[in-house]
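In this supplementary section we document a worked example of the pipeline. Step one takes a protein sequence of length 524 as its only input; no multiple sequence alignment statistics are reported here. Step two produces a three-dimensional model, which step three serialises into structure tokens for compact storage. The input and output of this example are shown verbatim.
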Amino acid sequence: MKTLDHWLASPWRRSAVAVLAGALPVLAFPGPALWWWAWFALVPWILLARTAPGGRRAAYDGWCGGFGFVLAMHHWLLPNLHVFTFVIAALLGALWVPWGWLVRRTLGGAPSAGRVAAALVVLPSGWLLAELVRSWQGLGGPWGMLGASQWQVAPALRLASVGGVWLLSFLVVAVNVALAVLVAVRRARVPALAGLLAAAAATSAAWVWSPRPDTDERAAIAVVQPGVVAGADSADRRFDREEQLTRRLTDRDLDLIVWGESSVGFDLDDRPDLARRLAALSRETGADILVNVDARRSDKPGIYKSSVLVGPQGPTGDRYDKMRLVPFGEYVPFRSVLGWATSVGKAAGEDRRQGTEQVVMDVGDGLRIGPMVCFESAFPDMSRSLAADGAEVLVAQSSTSTFQHTWAPEQHASLAALRAAETGRPMVHATLTGVSAVYDANGARIGSWLGTDASTSRVYEIPLSHGTTPYVRYGDWTVYAALLTLAAWGAAEGVRTVRLRRSGRARPAPRARTAHGSPARPGR
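The serialised model returned by step three reads:
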């Protein structure tokens, strides 16, 4: 142990270990998808920060670990953003500075059982604070939240219906803290074991008592995935391919057909020929078609990404303009300062325009859908709002073709399972080039994924659900509880510090002694 401590005494070596420790949780996400790894992946990072020689070094361990976490989670951006990926990781990694400091503050040295018990709620709360801040769309959104690693675990999905992905993140961090204590602070085993039992009890309680969605009717929804279409005139050729695949759906008694993000590269008012072809497809298949138009609008300035519903007579008038744009991919934040990113990578040359409100669409026979575009499916509040507004099926139109041979398509497809479980509404994740996926109201996968090598159309029989999950009803209560926990702990620590200082000042100084060892008398 002394050898390891000596080796870590080098700031550079310690920083490198912190970066690697922070990157470990990425293995719990797709592509590896080792969901069980998340429950102890933070232990090395926690053990490192708790042994920091001071609070400042612990905070720096938090920063380095956060840098490793963000870089590993977004490593697939490197071919497009190049060096700017490291800049983003460094900026977002700073959000874990308070967390690193909290680890040492609560677990450093030989913590008492009381401090360990506090750490079991304070450290998960601190982690949620970092996730909350980075969930702001301007900072890249909530991609890679720790709880999202549990997208394929049925008990975890049931917990998500109670407290959203936030509750999953909280419990994952709490379990990691408990395991770190069992490894390094054996004198405090009791609160650590109690924390593990509490996590197991919460999961069991959610499994037994959380309401399950009621299902009765079914909807037949088809996904059209054309695959990679590149080169000259790709927008026209992609439309031709999507038209061909949609015609295969004739006589399938469908309720809706969904095309992926940017499936139509022209404004339909400027290209009435395309609008007529879509209307003809709707008549042939007997279903409305939800397309996604990525083009300069003819009725207002700028480029929009819009979900547009087309029926037998043409566009129905239902339209949703994407509200949350991808930083650097669809706009450059503070372009006057960061515009240089376009010269070192494939950042957006022109900012796309934002929509102003979410839309619930009626696609016929009473079926109501809530569309989202691209990484909007990462935002729990958007799907929750759509479910509260009456959407029976959530639909995300996406395109990760730029990152075709990376972990990004699978990571993106997995998010729909969480949104379905949180809201108690089935979700369709339709893409241009894969991965496309469909989940029921419990977050369980329906049918098979359409991988990045598929160019096809597929029909999914989706059970419709009713009722309201606790998460839709009560929202982000886990986040509010975490913030209250941090505030209460901060106040308690402040009071404790003041009392220690006062007791230090009030303690009388020892009386001086003479050369003969007897106490000196006043005045002599």
